[in-house]
């Protein structure tokens, strides 16, 4: 496993988590703590920044669910996935530590993914599985498509934006275990966090299955 690839995964995840979670604090500081649009674009644009900066080096996973889907599709080997997962967790944790240095433990805790009012764990789990599957189906397809390849980073970033626009009121939006785990470690928030670690991995497998279903026989 190339050190360059691990560094790219660490840095890309750092940009994604720092840019996205800092947007939550920016929206709150500006008097708009529930401004879904600002936060959604914060995460989508942060992902695009990480992809354009580091994506061509490592493949731009920045998410254990993406790495798992790439293993299922035989684009990545399991040992490399393990290295990617460690790099991604370190990147996410460093991002939250950066916020901690600049703000406070309470501020970092406020960037943690939490259920919306009245949402049960099984409902949040379902939302996270379904939208992670959609996310992975997009990623798997555009990164193999000659037609969409030139705009792949844009499409992936905008898909994450859409997912945030939908899920923020229900789950806070994770679709990425380390996006939740990094702030959880630093901010000390653990309530129902198993949903945000397991559901995206289940969604990754489902997304890969959907991708294989619709592209079976595709020779592109």
Account of the 3D structure:
This protein has 220 residues and is an all-alpha fold. The protein has one domain (3-215): Glycerol uptake facilitator protein (Up-down Bundle). Helix content is 75%, strand content 0%. The chain contains nine helices and no strands. It is globular. The mean pLDDT is 94.
Characteristic key phrases:
globular; mainly alpha; 220 residues; 9 helices; Glycerol uptake facilitator protein; single chain
* Number of domain modules: 1
CATH superfamily descriptor: Glycerol uptake facilitator protein
SSE-based structural type:
mainly alpha
Q: DSSP helix count?
A: 9
Radius of gyration: 16 Å
| Oligomer description | single chain
End-to-end distance:
28 Å
What fold name goes in the CATH topology slot? Glycerol uptake facilitator protein
Please state the second-level CATH architecture.
Answer: Up-down Bundle
Question: How much of the sequence is in beta strands?
Answer: under 5%
Broad CATH class: Mainly Alpha
What is the mean predicted local confidence, pLDDT?
Answer: 94
Count the E strands.
Answer: 0
Largest sheet: none
Provide a brief overview of the structure:
The chain is mainly alpha-helical.
Helices and strands in order:
Blueprint: H1 3-29, H2 36-58, H3 64-72, H4 78-102, H5 105-109, H6 121-142, H7 152-171, H8 177-187, H9 194-215
Helix pairs in contact: 1-2, 1-4, 2-7, 3-4, 3-6, 3-9, 4-8, 6-7, 6-9, 8-9
């Amino acid at each position: 496993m190339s050190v360059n690839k691990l560094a790219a995964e660490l840095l890309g995840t750092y940009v994604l988590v720092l840019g996205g979670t800092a947007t939550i604090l920016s929206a709150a500081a500006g008097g708009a703590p529930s401004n879904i649009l600002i936060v959604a674009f914060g995460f989508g644009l942060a992902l695009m920044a990480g992809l354009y900066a580091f994506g061509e080096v490592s493949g731009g996973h920045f998410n254990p669910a993406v790495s798992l889907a790439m293993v299922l599709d035989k684009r990545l080997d399991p040992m490399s996935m393990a290295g990617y997962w460690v790099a991604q967790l370190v990147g996410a944790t460093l991002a939250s530590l950066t916020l901690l240095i600049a703000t406070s433990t309470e501020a970092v805790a406020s960037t943690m993914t939490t259920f919306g009012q009245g949402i049960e764990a099984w409902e949040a789990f379902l939302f996270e599985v379904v939208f992670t599957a959609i996310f992975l189906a997009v990623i798997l397809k555009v990164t193999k498509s000659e037609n969409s390849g030139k705009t792949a980073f844009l499409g992936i970033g905008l898909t994450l934006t859409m997912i945030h626009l939908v899920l923020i009121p229900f789950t806070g939006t994770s679709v990425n275990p380390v996006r939740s785990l990094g702030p959880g470690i630093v901010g000390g928030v653990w309530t129902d966090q198993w949903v945000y670690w397991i559901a995206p991995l289940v969604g990754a497998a489902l997304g890969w299955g959907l991708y294989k279903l619709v592209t079976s026989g595709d020779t592109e």
